[in-house]
Amino acid sequence: MKRYECIVCGWIYDEELGCPEEGIAPGTKWEDIPDDWICPECGVGKLDFEMLEL
What we know:
Elements: E1 3-6, E2 12-14, E3 49-51
Antiparallel strand pairs: 1-2, 1-3
């Protein structure tokens, strides 16, 4: 599982945890999240996220 960080506000999406409050189930891969999804903290799109090295 991977983690992705918003380059604008620093919010992190963890594939293992998902984002249930946004309707994204735990275990949802980044590529399976709709392209029009936005960061729940600052409202930017998926293009403004980078994969984090673990």
